[in-house]
Amino acid sequence: MHIYRSHNCAQLRKSDVGSTVRLSGWIHRKRDHGNLLFVDLRDHYGLTQIVTDVDSEAFKVLEKMRAESVVTITGDVVARAAETVNANLPTGEIEVRARDVSVQSAAQELPMPVFGDAEYPEDIRLRYRFLDLRRERLHNNIVLRSQVISSIRQRMIGQGFTEFQTPILTASSPEGARDYLVPSRVHPGKFYALPQAPQMFKQLLMVAGFDRYFQIAPCFRDEDARADRSPGEFYQLDFEMSFVTQDDVFNAIEPVLHGVFEEFANGRRVSAAPFPRIPYREAMLKYGSDKPDLRNPLIITDVTQHFTKSGFGLFERIVEGGGVVRAIPAPNTADKSRKFFDDMNDWARSEGHAGLGYVTRKGGEFGGPIAKNHGEEGMAAIYDALGLGPDDGLFFAAGKEGQAAKLAGAARTRVAEQLGLIDPNCFEFCWIVDFPMFEYDEDAKKVDFSHNPFSMPQGELEALETKDPLDILAYQYDIVCNGVELSSGAIRNHRPEIMYKAFEIAGYSKEDVDTNFAGMINAFKYGAPPHGGSAPGIDRIVMLLADEPNIREVIVFPMNQKAEDLMMGAPGPVTAKQLRELNIRVVEQPKS
Prior knowledge:
The protein is of the alpha+beta class. The chain is built from 18 helices and 24 strands. The strands form six sheets. An eight-stranded mixed sheet has the order 6-9-10-24-23-22-19-12. It has a five-stranded mixed barrel with strand order 1-2-3-5-4. Strand 22 and strand 23 (about 485-490) form a beta hairpin. Helix 5 packs parallel to helix 16. The longest helix is centred in the first third of the chain and has 23 residues, at about 135-160. The model has no long low-confidence stretch (mean pLDDT about 95).
């Protein structure tokens, strides 16, 4: 028999009764029934119940062991009595009567228990992540992550993609988020950067003629944490294709995403391919967001024209000043009290907005100050235009277009959540397409790129030379699932003359492009194929499949919100010798 185990802790069944077996694992839980001691032994695979009586040598050893001690147990498989069978465990029909126990590692008193579902402060969970990872939910999340990545890899290869690895040490880029810099020992005063994404390298692979590339790529960005973004590093399914249109990209990746989600949906519905394609401006109007949650049935409508001449002076003045009014339905709210509507208004103010207007309607009767001032006939016209019923309420977001869209989008989500309208048992995908190529930067008082500067403008060079930059659309797209942006992508600008012109519009000279993007612009001068791709986030995919609200729950060893690794003590100081080798001096920050 093997020195540590003949079976794992999820393997034994009723057919093994009478066998002598050896199991190794962690003491998950102990239950002392006087003359009998029951121990749940846990390993990566599952649980097996161990039993020993007071006269056994095994009893004396196990009785002293703390939870999470690692032991090897040799014993006999016996059937449980019918009334003690645990139908929730694969091993629930048997138990192992211990004859011999070897202690592999005794555990100290735990800073946080592994057994149970109690919540613990984040700093404790991250400092003792190795304990946190033993807990069933988190352990399963990490296994799921591995399975998802394996499935993605197989599906990408099945779609004709080849996996390549791009550099981790590269050059700093002036575009995008803040870089993580790595000092060079052999080139004093110069720095590498960790890649924010393999963007330029994957495009260079297309120039090199590899046609269809992918990798599960680590990316590094020095940016703040949020629920769906981990500070420091993240992983993405990075891919690129040559001689493709936007439709070709969609047709290649949709079966991969749909297949992976369907494989791990666990009974939840996955929207069928092809996924809906929603122009950016339509998304901002109807959903108030460029990452809409299509599980939410509510649609925002522009009702500005109804308030050009209105008895409700506030909205009339906003419209006269160039603002807009957006309406968000609240269906079947006749049974809601005035407090429901007032609470929504208070919520809007707590989010930094001026407020959220509303109209109530019960049995066809309008209520609230807006209805009173706008008039019965005016309100009826709005309700008819929106197709609303006699018991539907209505919220209004008014202001400058960007502000109104933002408030309307947030209100759409909150109303749906409050009314229980979002189906938690489905995954709804969509593409957001036709992003503006440029936007006006109010702070810098100039036109700048709105999305990805390396995207191909729709209309190519002719559009750049003849159209108002703010009217030019790009072949840029986002893939969104349940309101979470999984990735951005684009058909790339592979022609130097178009790239120079696009950067010129954004205020960059030819010399700026040649200096900052030398590797890519030089390569394009030697024959570059039309190409495009995207990079869905692995962490976000797993977060959705695991139904976790925070991305840290699907990352093995995440950092905290301050980008600190509490377990390993990073970032931390280094020795003076290391700094001298790198020709670096640390400047002490003044104490506040």
